[in-house]
């Protein structure tokens, strides 16, 4: 990659890592289900009127939109609202790569190699260590488990997207798909918000709106989602997917650093060790090293669109 494109890929990883900070800020103004609904509404409108619909069947928008929007983001936002730190959330969510491999093995019958299995073992040992640290530190274990559930939901969405790409007549543009897929989650999310957060959630949020809350929502929907995936998709079209995807491994470090600097979150030694195990496990399960004789570059299995980032 050209140096300026390396900087661009690193910038997107930084944006996606930093995105957990505005999520935490926005959750002070909006209840989690309502925030998730507004996030996808803002990402879809008005962009859907200017972006060509991807050449895929409508069912794929639903098969990805429900686990990604209603599953991943609802569970993540609820978990963070209940006390899951922003920095650790950015790390735990990366377990989606492990869930993706597991679900792909079961649903798509993709074989798991020894390296992938070893990476899973390392990553899940990090998850267990974080879980113990959460319990011993008095933090809500339920919030931690909700984030794990969000990662699992993301894994299901990834498998659906992989199957969609395998059966599509032509390559599917990630940015266009993200815009049109964003039309799916708002209705079920608004319905869930009405049921669990009550009919007063919208007027109550409107009365307590702050500049920080509105700005955070705008960052989540437009900068992280539309700008992030627009640039990421542009890089994917210019370079090999594995070369670009390697930079997604920078998201958790940026997430931890930004949460520490902006929110003042402290990560003790146990949690830091758990986070390191997760990052190493995901990297070990994703990075593909070829023989030295082949002189082929390092490749990383490309992440599926989402990121919550």
TrEMBL record:
- What is this protein identified as? EamA family transporter
Annotated membrane topology is:
Multi-pass membrane protein
What does the similarity note say? Answer: Belongs to the EamA transporter family.
Q: Where in the cell is it found?
A: Membrane
Organism per entry: Actinomadura nitritigenes
Family annotation (Pfam families): EamA
Q: Where are the transmembrane segments?
A: 7-27, 33-51, 60-80, 86-108, 117-135, 141-160, 172-196, 208-232, 244-263, 269-289
Does the record carry Transmembrane helix as a key word? Answer: yes
Q: List each copy of the EamA domain by range.
A: 6-130, 144-283
Q: Which UniProt keywords apply?
A: Membrane, Transmembrane, Transmembrane helix
